[in-house]
Design a protein that fits this description.
single chain; 135 residues; mainly alpha; two-stranded antiparallel sheet; two-stranded antiparallel ribbon; 7% strand
Length: 135
């Protein structure tokens, strides 16, 4: 369970190191074609965060994220960062729409050549810059 929670946080770019991100974050190239589309990126991001949705109502509350805060290294800081980045309407709940919007911002930052997909090198660069971007 700890690994699943850590994967969720790392998938969001919640401030872990690049080596940890490579170890725990899932490969966002879901169809293994060598590029990551916005749709793939959003799906991986949503899967990571929505794993915290204990009551399966399609949204994640801070109470549900408490397990991450309690178990992951620097967990409380991770949860705070997740909420800062994703809770756009500041209602204390993260929805799929908010996850998708946040993933879109990060995707646009990561797609440095603006070709509509991210290469393995662009993904790696994004992971190394985690925490320094605005998304």
């Amino acid at each position: 369970m700890k690994h699943v929670l850590l994967a969720a946080a790392l998938t969001l770019g919640a401030g872990a190191g690049a080596a940890q991100a490579q170890m725990w974050a899932p490969n966002p190239d879901l169809d293994r074609d060598g590029k990551v589309t916005l749709s793939e990126f959003q799906q991986v991001q949503a899967n990571g965060i929505l794993r915290l949705d204990a009551d399966k109502d399609g949204k994640v509350t801070r109470a549900e994220a408490k397990s991450l805060a309690d178990r992951a290294p620097n967990g409380a800081a991770m949860v705070d960062r997740i909420w800062t980045r994703l809770d756009a309407n500041k209602d204390g709940v993260i929805t799929r729409a908010e996850i998708d919007a946040g993933a879109k911002r990060r995707f646009e930052l990561g797609d440095t050549n603006k070709d509509g997909s991210m290469s393995k090198d662009e993904i790696q660069a994004m992971r190394q810059n985690r925490g320094r971007d605005a998304g």
